[in-house]
Amino acid sequence: MTSIIGSLIIFCFCPLLGGLPLIDWLTYGLKGQKLSQLGTGNVSVSAAFYHGGTLVGVLAVLSEAGKGIVAVLLARYFFPFEPFWEVMALIALIIGRYWRGKGAGTTNLFWGMMVHDWAATFLTALIGFTSFTIFRDRVTGRLVALFLLAFILTVRHPYDLVYILLAWSLSGLMAWIFYKIPDDLSLPETGVKSSSRTMFAFFRGEKSLLCLNDKLEADKVGQKAANLAYLRSLGYGVPNGWILLPGDDPQTLLDYIDPSLEHPFVVRSSAMGEDTETASAAGQYLTRLNITNQEALKAAIFDCLAAYNHPHAVKYRRDRGQSDEEIALLIQKQIEGTVSGVAFSRDPVNPLNNCVIIEALPGAANQIVSGKITPEQYQVEVYDKLENDVINIKKIQQIPSRNIPDFIIEKVAILARNIENLYHGIPQDIEWTYDGEALWILQTRSITNLQPIWTRKIASEVIPGVIRPLTWSINQPLTCGVWGDIFTLVLKEKASDLDFDQTATLHYQQAYFNATLLGQIFRRMGLPPESLEFLTRGEKITKPSLASTISNLPGLWRLFTKEWTLTKDFWQDYRQRFKPQLEKLQHQEIQQLSPQELLKNIEKILSILKPTTYYSILAPLSLSLRQALLKVSPEQLNNHSTPEIAALQALEKLANEITSLIDVKNINTAEDLFSALAQNQKGQNLIQKFDLIVENYGYLSDVATDISIPCWRDHPNIVKTLLTQLTQNHSQRKNNVKKNNNNWRIKNVQKRLDLKGKVTEIYSQFLAQLRWHFLELADYLITKGIIQESQDIFELTYAEILELMEDEDKKNDAELNKKIKQRKQQFEINKSLKRIPYIVYGNIAPIPENEPELSKSSYRKFKGIGASFGQVEGYIRICRNFQQIGEINSQTILVIPYADSGWGPLLANAGGIIAEVGGALSHGAIIAREYGIPAVMNIDHATEIFQEGQRVKIDGQQGIIELLEN
């Protein structure tokens, strides 16, 4: 009975004891302040010292120490010979402490452990305190102390497995709580009560002097100083400097730094919120140059601190929704430059210009940023291609005399692009100087007007080409909503300030993903910003730091559990929702449905498209992840379950039967083929088989995700042409590549590939049903005289269609048809554009110039993503869509903008494939591997670069294309 009572006390009373807000009551009683409403909102000992002073802090320590001691003594009373219960009591106490007071429970733990095992606690404290005093980093110090505590307790109880497990659980719990709660010691030192200032300054843990040789965090020292420290750590030329933290006494720095005429210094702002991706704060704060003595240094520090509260700086922060935080200062050695300037890694005025923009003058860089002197301006083309780097310097203005040597301009241009790459492709504004020997970086920050960065590299696979209003009004909320749900699942409260509606947008009526937003999301998840392109297209990826991965383990674990149960979840939804709804739709005669019934079906399809979109996103990501982890190459997988291969094999089987029945030598067109088949009963049976294939795979199209694009069922003549080519090329076509999937790793990944194939099938079928329902609705609107032709319905958004159907008799037909006509014209304009950029900087997309890319014509080799092994030589044939189908054989190198499931029969006839977009998991790559056709994906503007009839050699393993003839 005693053990039961003891257990109840430990599991029920201890959490309640831990949750008692004694510190909050003490602070309120003595100071009239509620800690839960101040600072970080933590009801902690450090918060009591910070906001209440020494007396409140000491009483807070005593109250929390008492909790820890009571918990241990209670456990010892009920379980005197089982010490693991004392550890369990502390765990229960700390859980209650975090749950109610949002405090870490450090004091509870220390004094509770002192009573539990004073020797282990003393040894841990001694080693931990010594290391903290030396290294002065409280984050590392905490983790080291927790590790030491668990390790020492393990050594002291080596045979008690329960005790060991609880000891490590206690340390793990504390580490997790430290990660979850904000740190009161990070609050500005200016706000701490004077009686607590010494203690507070010591336990903050920063070194007495921070410099650019240290690893600096932007939230503590500002983005400017953090950027320069990062570049310096990588070996770039950055003058060393020292940091004055917000609220710190500058006297320590003044005692250490000794400026002189020979060694002048510069004082620069490094405010929180300055030099970020969304706000540069250029010109808002103060910089002091040529500081040559102590008095001038002291005056410069106070001037720069005061500038933070200047009215124009305050207004700048207000306009951008920034809070008034603190300002750090950067005191650097000043470089006496012989040539200085600024460089923009992308043109901030014309984002379509692929040049680095450089402004330079003899002397110091402040001449340029001051705006008082007109610098020399240069455009520099930098092309890092397969054969060599191309540097081409062009002056923007004709200046009578040039003072800047070419080699300096070249160095700066390459430096600008290298730094841009370091910051994940975010365009950089760089201040630099050259002292006659070395190039120095004085500052780098994002070019804010070029944010966000939009990419159509991934989007071109998801929904390629020019997109009509109805398609986008359905796809955009689906895609953004599902991505938002997935990221929120992982990030939880970290996602609260993210606008997932901005995940995708249209430029030139083509889909673009928000690379800036995705980069922020992946960094918050502890993943590299390029993770999505790695998962979807096979691009290279940098490894995340171990610390960021560990700190994001809870969110990644939630995502992992979803990935682990993905197959089970899908098949459950398939049986309960997807299959019954599809069967119901397929057995309906939609021609017999009323407009209201059509709309009701459309609503049902849209509601079910959200979960299918979820699976269509997560299944490919899961496949890519397992392929990478289990090191399974795409060539080892069997793609028979994917719609593109299943449809192709059905047509191939039919083509084989046709060649055994009739002589195809005299067959030139699809009409010839089907006329010959109609001559006898066996041929008619094969025609029926063809009709059945079209019925089964009628949902396939050029672009499955675009409901405005006709499906196979809508235009069976296209499928007839594809079947005819398969029949004509029967003897030339390669056999399917045999796969060996006996290995357990391959089997594991194969299951995910099979799942992806089924998901694609279901998703495409629902989208096809959506298309056919809208077309039926269009026929009704035509009979009412509201629209002129069925395709007009795709020029309206879904909301406009609903509004039209609610009050169709009162609509202004002339106004509506004018709107449709204008949208059709705009569609044709955007469709005719060439060289549409894959990257758009900012929210304004200039009209692209239909000119060849600078210096591009000199290239004879191109590097893309190798998607299917093998080498082949052949002749280029450009095919932008199914309407351009021509003669294709084993000598044809087919150049396509993208490939969807419906392209299978077309690609299977080619000798090689080049695609503008796509990766190892794209539809074109899958078909190529299945038939052993060399393929290279991800060649920008391939349909524009190459010309009909050119002879090329492609290497599908290396991803290299070599132009053999002009």
Keywords:
966 residues; alpha+beta; 8-stranded mixed sheet; 6-stranded antiparallel sheet; 50% helix; globular
Largest sheet: 8 strands, mixed
Rg estimate, integer Å:
34 Å
Span between termini: 93 Å
The count of β-strands is 23
Provide mean pLDDT, rounded: 82
Morphology call: globular
Count the helices. How many? 35
Low-pLDDT parts are 185-192, 199-207, 852-857
Beta-strand fraction estimate: 5-15%
Tell me the structural class: alpha+beta
Give an overview in words:
The protein is of the alpha+beta class and 966 residues long. 50% of the residues lie in helices and 13% in strands. It contains 35 helices and 23 strands. The strands form 4 sheets. Strands 16-23-22-18-19-20-21-17 form an 8-stranded mixed β-sheet, with helices on one face. Strands 9-8-7-6-10-11 form a 6-stranded antiparallel β-sheet. Strand 19, helix 33 and strand 20 form a beta-alpha-beta unit. Helix 5 runs antiparallel to helix 6, helix 7 packs antiparallel against helix 8 and helix 19 crosses helix 25. The longest helix has 40 residues. The chain starts with a helix and ends with a strand.
